[in-house]
Amino acid sequence: FGSPDGDLDNVLFCYDVRLKAWWTYTLDVDEPILNMIHIDDKDNREGIGIITRHTVSEARKRMARILLVEDTPTNQDVALAILKKLGYRADVAGDGFEAMDALRNQPYDLVLMDCQMPGMDGYQATKEIRKPESGVLDPDIPVIAMTAHSLIGDREKCLEAGMDDYVSKPVDAATLAHTLDRWLGQRLRNADDDGDIIPAHPPAQEKGLDLPGELYDPEILINILMGDRELADTIIKGFLEDIPSQIEKLRQFVDQGEAGEAEIQAHKIKGAAGNIGSRVLQGLALTMEKSGNA
Fold first, then answer.
1. At CA 292, angle to CA 291 and CA 294, rounded to 5?
2. Which residues face 62 on adjacent strands?
3. Residues 6 or more apart whose Cβ sits within 8 Å of residue 188
4. Which of 253, 240, 252 shows the shortest CA–CA distance to 281?
5. Residues 61-89: b if buried by 16+ CB within 10 A, e if exposed
């Protein structure tokens, strides 16, 4: 049964006449659903749902394997939650070294790469991935940078490292969905693309403490998580358990005069604070990060 618009009435009609496959006239010719069409009969009416192009799309998402490279627990939780809600599954690597090990041992379709990490950062890791002698299973795997900077010049830095695209943190679910669809859709259908970076948001300069002054705005995280307040509460709890030790690490780096380590640590705190909606802490961490880079 074909439908030009795919509306709900037509879906209900399909149930009524026991059709087990339904598609629209705009269906792509490569959709595997074309090989799955059959009409129900009395022997197989139970336990089989209607197959739609949306079902196929969700199945394609489940087939995709994503590696999330992120060292901050709060940011890991937020990113994994968004990916799950978008229908994807992902493994986590805590730094560039773990990412390299994972890519050498497991086949992945895409990497979401944090840029600022201790040890081996995202830029260094991507450069290693692109080397033919790196030992990774796929040196050409799409790498999407996740950056809390979004500064002018980030695009060039990502390109130089071999990254394919980038999204800004805090991650916007709709933007991430579009970016993943662009790169995974291309990859899973073996389509060609120009490979150039199309930034999810235009680059903009960050501004010290020129951020809204709310100590904590719970709606920011709730919006990121697409309205899931229960999950937001869980992530906030994890943040409150983790952030004292992160601040203590920053204090120690400052006391020891380790400006580089302090910059990286402040960046971590800034990203986590931005994700959960603590704009004041985010602004303070940004100021310290810039001081470490001075």
1. 60
2. none
3. 60, 63, 64, 109
4. 240
5. beebebbbbbbbbbbbbbbbbbbeeeebe
Query: From CA 142, how far away is CA 139, in angstroms rounded?
Result: 9
Look up residue 270 and give its amino acid.
K
CA distance 238 to 120: 25
| Residues 241-270 as b or e (16 or more Cβ within 10 Å = b) | eebeebeebbeebbeeeeeebbbbbbbbbb
Q: Tell which residue, 257, 256, 292, has the closest CA to residue 269.
A: 292
The H-or-E segment that residue 55 falls in is: helix 53-63
Cβ–Cβ < 8 Å for 137, 171 = no
Can you give the pLDDT at residue 294? 61
Distance CA 167, CA 223 (A): 17
User: For 53-111, what is each residue's pLDDT tens digit?
Assistant: 444 377 678 789 999 999 999 999 999 999 999 999 999 999 999 999 999 999 999 99
Residues in Cβ contact with 192 at an 8 Å cutoff, skipping those fewer than 6 apart: 186
Q: What is the pTM of this model?
A: 0.66
